[in-house]
Amino acid sequence: MVAEGQDRTAALERRNAELQRLLELAREQLGEMKEKLAEASQPPQTFATFVQKVGRLVDIVSQGRRMRVAVLPGVDVDLKPGDEVLLNGMSVVVGKAQPERTGQAAIVREVIDDDRILVVSRGEDERVAVLIGGDAAARVHEGDTVIIDPRTGFASERVERTGVEALLLEEVPDVDYASIGGLTPQIERIRDAIELPIRHPELYREHLLQPPRGLLLYGPPGCGKTLIAKAVAHSLGDAVGADRSYFLSVKGPELLNKYVGETERYIRTIFERARAKAHTGAPVVVFFDEMDALFRARGSGVSSDMETTIVPQLLTELDGVEALSNVIVIGASNREDMIDPAILRPGRLDVKIEISRPDARSAEDIFAKYLTTRLPIDPGAIKEHGGDAHATVRAMTSDAVAHLFAAPDASDHVSGAMIRNIVDRAKTAAIKSVISGGAKGISFAHLRSACEQELIEARAVAARELG
User: Fold this and answer.
1) Cα–Cα distance between 21 and 132 in angstroms, integer?
2) For the chain, what percentages of helix, strand and coil (3-state, to nearest 5) are there?
3) Nearest residue to 419 (alpha-carbon basis) of 458, 370, 459
């Protein structure tokens, strides 16, 4: 009997413990339901933007209205301007909300001071915005796009605009004047026009001489116009003693946009970016390639009337560059006669330099940039020249130039790009020769064959253009 009673007591204790556990679980579930019911019955809360703290009160902007409201006791008021807060039905701050990641895009026209910027949005609507966040002024420059809250005037973050950024190449390629062959007179003129005012500004001031604002490189394609522009940007950094220089390369056709006013905005943004970079003391080259595709003569009837607004926009920006000593505008074109005369007049693109096709002497100089002793040279050819690789390369260069200019129409087709392609063709032929079991090295025959192939292709291209 005693053992039976003990078993019954133990069973009752287990049942009592289970009932207690279920009771506690029901109590917790009831508490959670009460909390959810309380949350569901709460009135809606309003989002607002924190502006500043004034004693125990705070200034906020809600639905376009600026108000001074109280903060619920116990709520953390460690807020920064621009933070999002929650208001209850009595317009009391009851908590902090997650920041909004959307807003109106605006372009920075000017950085006023450490925390204020002048922005333009919705056409030409200018307003002063306040930068929020640490080191805000260091994050934005003229021409950048920022998100602003039109109700509060706060600018929250910088936005990458791929529409314009894709058109700009800010890194200067590692190209100097020594990499360019056959254009020594043109390079000398460019250095006189661009580097002299930067290296000797006091002499220009003494002679009351205004340095050129820009230059135009014109001539047939493939003769080194783009290469010269890159070398100018590379050289300017040394001229002013800056740590680096900037090369804003703009492709004319890519700048065109079907939407009204977008191309003009792109142009403004490009020059705003150039001014911002120039303020740091670094030289800036704004390079417009294929300039005739974008800035055609107004009233020419060649294209639509789009140039009637694009050309004036560029003229305005060129005139605005006058106060900046570190900005150089360079244009390149195959058809300078199609560019609007107002762009080419003195005071804008002052210096005009023709980059013509190379003659035999210039062609040898260009060949020397690409055909060097660092390349595998035919051992038989080197042996014929007394084992002197340098003499062999010079002989190869002279032979290739003589073979190239032996054609009566060579002067109509030869360019720096063609000469580089001739050397590349010869390299390919030498590689194929090695693969097929022949001797290693570029030979005279490889270069002569490459010259003939390039001339044939150039004639075919010219025939299609005429036909």
Assistant:
1) 53
2) 45, 20, 35
3) 370
pLDDT at 204 over 50: yes
Nearest to 335 by CA among 308, 303, 362: 303
In 3D, which of 212, 195, 180 has the Cα closest to residue 321? Answer: 212
Long-range contacts (CB closer than 8 Å, 24 or more residues apart) made by 255-259: 255/167, 255/294, 256/293, 256/294, 256/306, 257/163
Give the single-character DSSP code of 413: T
Predicted local distance difference test score (pLDDT) of residue 417: 87
Alpha helix locations (H) across 280-376? Answer: 307-320, 341-344, 360-370
Considering only CA atoms, which of 59, 389, 458 is closest in space to residue 221? 458
Tokens representing 316 are 């305005």
The reported pTM is 0.65
Residue at 46: amino acid letter: T
Q: Considering the chain, what percentage of its residues have pLDDT values greater than 70?
A: 82
Contact present, 190 and 331 (Cβ < 8 Å): no
Q: Does 341 score more than 80 pLDDT?
A: yes
CA distance readout (Å), 238 to 198, 282, 283: 10, 10, 10
Tens of pLDDT along 247-305? 777 766 666 665 566 777 778 777 877 777 777 667 777 888 888 877 777 765 555 55
| Inter-residue contact 372 to 330 (CB < 8 Å) | no
Report which residue type is found at 57: L
